[in-house]
Amino acid sequence: MVAYEAEQRVRVPVMRAGWVRQAFVHWRYPPDAVQALLPEGLVVDECEGAAWVSLTPFVMADVRPPGVPARLPGLPTFAETNLRTYVRHRGGRDGLWFLSIEVSSPLMLSARAVGVPYTMGDLRVSGYGDTVLYEGSRWGGGASYRLVVRPGSPIRPTERDVWLTSRWRAYTRRFGLLWETPVEHEPWPLSDATLDALDETLTTAAGLPPPTGEPLVHFSDGVRRVRIGASRPDVPVVPGAVPAGGR
């Protein structure tokens, strides 16, 4: 079972921020289609017999190093959009694997050093009445997205809701190694939501077939006390090795 609250304290963060006005759009996928995109050492984490891929646009707010207060004027705030899936390490620890990350600020590009797949783009998050518009396009053409989300009422998260939203580490690959990055924040305050519009090419650009079926959608006003820890290398990725539980 995935933990609703952070599994570990990030006592010495390398970055602090808020993640606000976040939408979660989740699709079911055949596990084999997702497993084909993962590096050795990671396996698909399944829920209800399926792999899941989530499109998560949001605003990265008050980005700062440790020790700098969030109330300081002029802290960087910008849009980001992740396409992610859910994985387990060969040692059993669950986490996220990012299929792509669109970002509108070059501040985050330093994370490419440990394999975080940041790509610069023109991104926007706007409110229109009782809806939120998210749109973006990758620099140089290619992948883009536009979705209009209508937040609903607050919900008491089910086990599946927690499984899809509350992950406390991300995995990346660089220099033949898997890297693990821990994160800590307060539990997500979730609402149900509906999609008024959706047009995206991020999934196919990542190597997935187009999603089918109606997605599951959540919205959150966000979490303000995000603490991101230092990435640490894990085990060497051995060419030709079969991950435990692999298909």
Word description of this protein:
The chain contains three helices and 13 strands. Strands 1, 2, 3, 4, 5, 6, 7, 8, 9, 10, 11, 12 and 13 form a 13-stranded mixed sheet that branches. The chain has 247 residues and is mainly beta. The model is unreliable at 237-247 (pLDDT under 50). The protein has a single domain, classed as Beta Barrel (Acetoacetate decarboxylase-like), CATH 2.40.400.10. It has helices at 31-35, 159-165, 202-205; strands at residues 15-29, 42-44, 51-64, 78-89, 94-103, 118-128, 131-138, 144-154, 169-174, 177-184, 190-200, 216-228, 232-236.
Blueprint of the fold:
Blueprint: E1 15-29, H1 31-35, E2 42-44, E3 51-64, E4 78-89, E5 94-103, E6 118-128, E7 131-138, E8 144-154, H2 159-165, E9 169-174, E10 177-184, E11 190-200, H3 202-205, E12 216-228, E13 232-236
Parallel strand pairs: 5-6, 5-9
Antiparallel strand pairs: 1-3, 1-12, 2-4, 3-4, 4-5, 6-7, 7-8, 8-11, 9-10, 10-12, 10-13, 11-12
Specify the overall morphology. globular
- The tally of structural domains comes to 1
Low-pLDDT residue spans:
237-247
- Name of the top-level CATH class: Mainly Beta
Distance between the first and last residues' Cα: 22 Å
CATH topology grouping: Acetoacetate decarboxylase-like
Number of strands: 13
How would you characterize the largest beta sheet? Answer: 13 strands, mixed
The number of helical segments is 3
CATH architecture descriptor text: Beta Barrel
Structural class, judged by helices and strands?
mainly beta
For this structure, what is the CATH homologous superfamily? Answer: Acetoacetate decarboxylase-like
The average pLDDT is 93
| Beta-strand share of residues | over 45%
Radius of gyration: 17 Å
Into which percent range does the helicity of residues fall?
Answer: under 10%
Order of helices and strands: EHEEEEEEEHEEEHEE
